[in-house]
Design brief:
alpha/beta; Creatinase/aminopeptidase-like; 2 domains; 15 strands; six-stranded mixed beta sheet; Creatin/AminoP/Spt16_N; Creatine Amidinohydrolase; single chain; M24 family metallopeptidase; Creatine Amidinohydrolase, Chain A, domain 1; elongated; Creatinase_N
Length: about 375
């Protein structure tokens, strides 16, 4: 079966969805005066072409968008099976082990007969300075390379087809939080808790994953912890952040689990944090400044005496991401100044003194849709 014979049922999204993405890339080219556009970031290539392999870090691939016709792809021949299984695009230019990435790109430019202004994604782990310099040195005089293109913004607004995939990721995240609630008891190690959560997520339909941060004791008061062999103890606060995906469309959810104690100042503080975040979420809708939600949280923490200067962002973008990418290029901090748009998908989070609460949300015309839907009560066991 050739790529042009891939049936629509085998594609993650519909052909009209991919055709709309191609039009969006050509509109980007129009805005930047480009005759061709070379995509090298794995997310960009998969988003446009459907092509996906778990070997994307070691098997370089590129896509070329021109003013007319289908995209032309440059694919390592060892990935032929995955190309034919996942992409809607025509037969690619194959490259073979022994060719350098620069040689592959220059051969593609030559075989495709590219001329004029050629945009290229640059400045990422996939397109370091050395690669850009080698391609610039090797292109023919009929070409002008523009190596600082960034099309990641084209992925910020999700289609309904994408949101269906992200809803599935949110459902998996909820099951992983429930798994943590069930398994977090004194005597279990953080590592075993993380393993249980991961197993539940995989069985529920997630792609490759770890549990996300799992920590207890002193480490629970700090984000970006990693599970260890520490044994959970009575009176512990346990921090979990599930980080799961469906076809690499991510959903995240933070919760705190309190062992062996109930009520008191900890519960009061949790309820205060939840109320602040609920108030902020209520302002998130299409056309509204991100500053409003951000100020509600920062001013509220200050007024309650919890944090004079809260150090963290309050929202950041989530969506289609491939490691090492950890978030989409949008965030809400005191310096941010943009309007929320319908279809943006965000991780809204609030962390303070070992209490952590977050949701993955979609911005809508009249509010938000939560993609993670676990109870927002403090988990007390």
């Amino acid at each position: 079966m050739t790529s042009t014979e891939v049936q629509s049922s085998q594609l993650l999204f519909s052909r009209p969805e991919y055709e709309q993405r191609l039009r969006a890339h050509r509109e980007y080219m129009d805005r930047h005066g480009l005759d061709h556009l070379i995509l090298v970031q794995p997310e960009s290539l998969t988003y446009l072409s459907g092509y996906m392999t778990a070997g994307y870090t070691s098997s370089f691939a590129a896509g070329v968008v021109s003013r007319t016709g289908d995209p032309a792809l440059l694919i390592r021949h060892a990935e032929e099976y995955w190309y034919r299984q996942t992409s809607w695009c025509p037969e690619p230019i194959w490259w073979y082990d022994g060719e350098s990435v620069a040689e592959v790109l220059l051969r593609g430019i030559s075989e495709l007969g590219l001329r004029g202004r050629i945009g290229m994604e640059g400045g990422s782990w996939r397109a370091p300075y050395q690669l850009i310099a080698a391609v610039m040195d090797g292109v023919p005089p009929t070409c002008t390379l523009v190596p600082d293109c960034d099309v990641s913004g084209l992925r910020l607004i999700k289609s309904e087809e994408e949101l269906q995939v992200m809803r599935r990721a949110g459902e998996i995240a909820d099951k992983m939080v429930q798994a943590a609630c069930d398994a977090a008891v004194p005597g279990i190690t953080e590592r075993d808790l993380a393993a249980h959560m991961s197993a539940v997520g995989i069985r529920a339909g997630s792609g490759q994953l770890e549990s996300g941060p799992v920590s207890s004791g002193a480490a629970a008061k700090h984000i970006h912890a990693s599970y260890t062999d520490r044994v959970l103890e009575p009176e512990d606060l346990v921090f979990i952040e599930v980080d799961t995906h469906s076809h690499n469309y991510y959903a995240r959810c933070m919760r705190s689990i309190r062992l062996g104690a109930r009520g008191g100042d900890v519960l009061r503080k949790w309820n205060d944090l939840r109320a602040l975040q609920d108030e902020a979420f209520a302002t998130v809708k299409h056309g509204v400044s991100c500053r409003i939600a951000d100020s509600i949280i920062r001013d509220g923490l200050r007024d309650l005496g919890y944090a004079e200067n809260y150090p963290n962002k309050t929202f950041y973008g989530l969506g289609f991401m491939l490691v090492p990418t950890a978030y989409e290029p949008i965030e809400v901090t005191p310096r941010s100044d943009f309007l929320f748009e319908s279809g943006m998908t965000l991780h809204g989070y609030l962390v303070l003194d070992g209490l952590n609460i977050s949701e993955t949300i979609v911005v809508r015309e009249d509010g938000i849709e939560r993609l993670t839907n676990f109870s927002r009560d403090l988990i007390e066991k």
